[in-house]
Amino acid sequence: MIRFLLWACVVAMGFYGIVVAGLYAAQRRLLFIPDTAVPDPVRAEVPQVEVIHVPTSDGLSLVAWYVPPRSADGFTVLLLHGNAGNIAHRAGRLRALNQLGWGVLLLEYRGYGGNAGSPSEAGLVLDAQAGLADLRRRGVAANRTLLWGESLGTGLAVRLASENPVAAVLLDAPYTSIVDAAARQYPYVPVRLLLKDRFESLSRVARITAPILVMQGSADRLVPPAMGQAIAAAANVPAEIWVAPGAGHVDLGPYGAVEAAEAFVHRHCPRLGGNVRAE
Fold first, then answer.
1. How far apart are CA 263 and CA 17, in angstroms?
2. Which runs of consecutive H residues, i.e. helices, occur in 199-256?
3. 54 — phi, psi (to 5°)?
4. Each residue of 101-116: pLDDT tens digit?
């Protein structure tokens, strides 16, 4: 009997090791779920956008959709989407933001939407930096720039805002870190030791100098509301939490997320007159 139990333990440990090794090898395929099809703005029903190409510091050219603000002193949103699909799946959000009179730069990541390269945290950070640099080249000032991060993209928005001045940071289902989120999904796997792409947001929030809005669904089971509450609590700037009762993960649009963001920006960001120079 003892010999059988020892054998069973060895088999179980071997199986566990195989599972962990498989998860380690496949972790980026689990984290990043790109739609590699080239996004078509006409099919996505946003024919008003300009299809542009944004250069990155490591030599890639990223497709993006851009629409300018209605007025010269209007806000422009750098929209950093979540881990699945491509920018065509965010056309509704682009339309809603543009209807406010805001400009939008909807950036596509490497490995997504027909772009070259493979997604990783380091690569997506370069992509987000390239998007912000493109807005600066277009004359969009820091105090007219809004960062909107969706799920995975909240980590990029937090990182950008911790290193660059912006007008406001709008976080849709933010996590404290991908490590924390993955540990909830895989409680029996040592993800804190194995994860390559960590997207540590909580440790960076205190360095943000712009007001922060945390938007979350009360029924979000992928990124629990407690993570967004921790992000807001760690801020050294005005930080508000907006909760959509009954909403899940990144389905906040029908619950009024865009309207909540507009009200937040109007409360915390001064309105300007005339043209605004890039900083």
1. 51
2. 225-233
3. -105, 120
4. 999 999 999 999 999 9
**Looking at the domain that runs over 32-268, which CATH code has it been given?**
3.40.50.1820
* Single-letter amino acid code for the residue at 21: A
What's the residue count for the chain? 279
Can you tell me the distance from the alpha carbon of 49 to that of 66, in angstroms, rounded to the nearest whole number?
A: 5
How far, in Å, CA of 138 to CA of 277, rounded? 10
Q: How many CB atoms lie within 10 A of CB 209?
A: 12
Residue pair 96/253 in contact (Cβ under 8 Å)? The answer is yes
Q: Read off the tokens for 165.
A: 């001045």
Distance from C-alpha of 224 to C-alpha of 181, rounded to nearest angstrom:
9
Rg (C-alpha) for the chain, rounded Å, is 20
What pLDDT score was predicted for residue 273? 40
Report how far residue 210's alpha carbon sits from residue 238's, in angstroms, rounded to the nearest whole number.
8
Coil, strand or helix at 150:
strand
Q: How far apart are alpha carbons 111 and 130 in whole angstroms?
A: 15
Reported as a single tens digit per residue, the pLDDT across 180-216 is: 998 888 888 788 888 899 999 999 999 999 999 999 9
CA 209 from chain center: how many Å?
A: 18
